[in-house]
Amino acid sequence: MPVIPATPAAIAAAARKIRDGELVAFPTETVYGLGADATNADAVAAIYAAKGRPQFNPLIVHVADLAAAKELAIFSAQAEKLAAAFWPGPLTMVLPQRPGNAIPDRTTAGLTTVAIRIPSHPVAQALLKEAACPVAAPSANRSGHVSTTHAAHVADDLGDQAAMILEAGPTEFGLESTVIDATTDKLIILRHGAITAETITAATGITPATNTTDDQAPTSPGQLTSHYAPSCPVRLNAESVNDGEALLAFGPDAPPCSGPHINLSETGDLGEAAANLFAALRALDQPGVTAIAVMPIPDHGLGKAINDRLRRAASPRT
Ligand code: TXA
Ligand code: MG
Fold it and tell me: Packing angle between helix 302-314 and helix 270-284, nearest 10 degrees?
């Protein structure tokens, strides 16, 4: 499957493929997405097949602007505030569907809600404008595996499952969007991500609640505990490195390691660590490595989203 630099001509070709019901991988400011026309149930089914994604896990619908979003969903006053503060950008809102919208059940896994995001990445924006349809796009990785922040990782994971991979370098944030339930005036963070709870509060005066780890009754069906997983085991809160292990370090005081090792941020910068996280997990996931030992990451701001991904990467595989 061709990895193609995201020139205007390539974006136009990709938009035609989406309109024709094919799958196209494209960069966003968070991670690469695997996109299809969100109004075409067969195209959406092909996304689930390509990723090996469970049918009960709904997709995020990407649109170019607020007018397009409002054709699909109903916005409360709080949702309007969030849209004004964070769109375009790495925030996904779960909203009540507008009755009679063009989104089939396949896209939302039969829910009465729809998750909507307006990405800020110029390639994603251009693609959405050219395609002129809502684009369903999960992260462009095999289901359960580490998300992709480089086009080459998409090619590694999805082989020739996409008709085209638009390439535009590494993604800026490196973590998926924050998913927030905005169906009622009580906002609930369903997935920590590129926009922190602190930033949401500072921009809107709204303090969202958090509900991100309940596998028993998942309000966000994608929040299965085992996820973002490399093939070798992951050991958290490591203070030292055992023989055979690789080291995922953070900050200036990394313990010695004779095997493969990567520092997410030598200065202890959480933004830099988030941007490097998924590529580092892939790079350390090598044959012969018994486990990836991960140093503790502070659990505030973006650290919450990083630790959420690491806990899932370390949890028992199902
Ligand atoms: O940054 C991102 O959000 C990337 C880029 C490509 O936009 N996309 C992404 O999609 O991470 P995905 O499919 O990997 O994760 C979507 C998450 C899943 O946890 C899913 O369960 C949740 O959003 N979700 C989707 N629709 C929902 C809905 N109606 N209600 C609750 N959760 C929903
Ligand atoms: Mg994903």
Answer: 20
